[in-house]
Amino acid sequence: MSLSKLSLMGHSAAGRVAVITGAGSGLGRATAHLFADEKSKIAVLDINLDNASKVVEEIESVHGKGVAHALKVDVRNTDNVKAVVDDVAKHFGRIDFLINSAGVGIAPGLTMDAHAWDNADFLKNYEFVMDINVTGTARMIQACVPHLAKAAAENDTPLNTSTPWSNTSRIVNMASIAAVRVSGMTAYDVSKHAILGLTRSAATRLGPKGIAVNCVAPGPVFTPLTEAYTGPFIRQLASEKPHRRPEFPEDVAQAILMLCRPSASAMNGNIVEIDGGCRNMMFGHPYNFDALKDKS
Ligand SMILES: NC(=O)c1ccc[n+]([C@@H]2O[C@H](COP(=O)([O-])OP(=O)(O)OC[C@H]3O[C@@H](n4cnc5c(N)ncnc54)[C@H](O)[C@@H]3O)[C@@H](O)[C@H]2O)c1
């Protein structure tokens, strides 16, 4: 394909409809705001309807009525997920993107020790985390696929390629840097590694339907999920990073938007790390850049 034809793919997600779970808070909320700025329409889904409705109010106060729609969903419930997704399709007429940001985090009881797998509390917490973070993501994918495939078919602009689809429908899952390293919180680490596997498998299966599936892997970001127990850690890590700042929810939202733009058509089954480069630091510690500067 010539460069000029690639450029025809466009760079904007304007006019598309995004379903965002966990959009009442944190990374999902920031993503909902950014997609509204891009002139997409947004279904703001969360188990906490009050928070989802507040996000819709915030968006509508900037972009006007009708841009966003709040719905209560529990991603643990297959029937509820399907009914809510079908409601969104009815409300907006189509679904182009699914962003799976509903998730639960880490707690002391979720760390594995020698006897964890015999421990009823550990197993209960482990199943809770897996049900929301992993199976909840899979339930959302299953419910959205017919709508995403329909939208891809309607958007189809072959651009003189040999493939029948231009895969304008996208799914972005929320992994974590704990999917490429580990946090030490066993259930969370397992769930985020599973998201990577789910993303790669779904990318392979859904590509022929015109749907690209990727995931993002944020490092620790200040949100309600993390601030209770990792605040000091995030601050310390930021001071050691190459660019000396923490990541913000908006940083993650920007990466998600990038993956949904038509021009990201060749990204499929990928993991995009948003950690300010901290994974590259040797043994978890940065070089002493200031000392290097003195010697140069
Ligand atoms: N904040 C971070 O540092 C960070 C880093 C890497 C990955 N993540 C991942 O990003 C995602 C979002 O995290 P966040 O920091 O925005 O957390 P958050 O707690 O601010 O938001 C999560 C949202 O998910 C909703 N939710 C929880 N259970 C649900 C259910 N059963 N059905 C529907 N909605 C439900 C919550 O009500 C909440 O609004 C999670 O998957 C998390 O693991 C976060």
Summarize the structure.
The protein has helices at residues 3-7, 26-37, 49-63, 78-92, 120-155, 186-206, 224-240, 249-260, 289-295, and strands at residues 17-21, 41-46, 68-72, 97-100, 169-174, 211-218, 271-274. It has 296 residues and is an alpha/beta fold.
Question: Could you explain the architecture of this structure?
Answer:
Helices cover 47% and strands 13% of the residues. It is an alpha/beta fold and 296 residues long. The chain has a single domain (8-225, 247-285), classed as Rossmann fold (3-Layer(aba) Sandwich). Strand 2, helix 3 and strand 3 (68-72) form a beta-alpha-beta unit. The longest helix is centred in the middle third of the chain and has 36 residues, at 120-155. The chain binds nicotinamide-adenine-dinucleotide. Nicotinamide-adenine-dinucleotide (NAD) binds next to helix 2, helix 5 and helix 7.
Question: Features of this protein?
Answer:
alpha/beta; Rossmann fold; oxidoreductase activity, acting on the CH-OH group of donors, NAD or NADP as acceptor; single chain; 7-stranded parallel beta sheet; SDR_fam; 296 residues; 9 helices; NAD(P)-bd_dom_sf; NAD(P)-binding protein; binds nicotinamide-adenine-dinucleotide
CATH fold node name? Rossmann fold
In the residues, how many domains can be counted?
Answer: 1
Number of helices: 9
Number of strands: 7
**CATH fourth-tier homologous superfamily:** NAD(P)-binding Rossmann-like Domain
Percentage of residues in helical conformation: 40-55%
CATH hierarchy class name: Alpha Beta
Chemical compounds bound to the protein: nicotinamide-adenine-dinucleotide
CATH architecture: 3-Layer(aba) Sandwich
- Give a short account of the largest sheet: 7 strands, parallel
Q: Based on Cα principal axes, name the global outline.
A: globular
N-to-C order of helices and strands? HEHEHEHEHEHEHHEH
**What's the end-to-end separation, in Å?**
45 Å
In terms of DSSP E residues, the strand content is 5-15%
Strand order within the widest beta sheet: 3-2-1-4-5-6-7
